Amino acid sequence: MINFLLLLILLICVITDIKNRKIYNNVIYPALLLTFIIHFAADGWGGLGYSFLGFLIGFSLLLIPYFLGGMGAGDVKLLALIGALKGGSFVFQSFLYMTIIGALIAAAIILFRRGVLKSIIYYFSSFKNGVKLPGGISKGSLTASYPYGVAIALGAAFQVMTEGTITLW
């Protein structure tokens, strides 16, 4: 049931993040309350403590990127919710997958923006031939942003699929 709830929340958040570039509080907060209730009902105070510790771990993992402006508050709350649902170990493993997936998405966006890949190849081939070209890669080509909720969801979904089989740490 927890995995189904997690995947449902992730699906909703991915859709809203792609469509509106927002992860809404009216999705996160009720799900968080339901999560705490489920864990308390299943395991009492121990279950609530497990859920709260997972929440704190998930929340803390994205605080620095949030304060540096690289992450939205919705992304932080979504990862905290994942921690509350599945626990600290799960959210940390999801965070590792999310980071890898997020980096791959960012690299793909940068490389496939109009003309960027061609500029990179041309620029580096000029170094090989000993010619320094003025300009290089425009800074604007490297500043694209994307809804990071997608990477968070893919990392968590991958962790659900591989739970207990692959451990990165």
UniProtKB/TrEMBL annotation:
Molecular function (GO) terms listed? aspartic-type endopeptidase activity
Q: Which UniProt keywords apply?
A: Membrane, Transmembrane, Transmembrane helix
Transmembrane stretches, by residue range? Answer: 26-42, 49-68, 88-112
* Entry keyword annotation includes Secreted: no
**What InterPro entries does this protein map onto?**
Prepilin_IV_endopep_pep, Prepilin_peptidase/N-MTase
Family the entry assigns: Belongs to the peptidase A24 family.
Official protein name in the record: Prepilin type IV endopeptidase peptidase domain-containing protein
Q: Per the record, a Pfam family?
A: Peptidase_A24
Domain Prepilin type IV endopeptidase peptidase stretches? 5-106
> What are the GO BP annotations of this UniProt entry?
signal peptide processing
Instruction: Output the Gene Ontology cellular-component terms.
Output: plasma membrane
Taxonomic lineage is: Bacteria, Bacillati, Bacillota, Bacilli, Bacillales
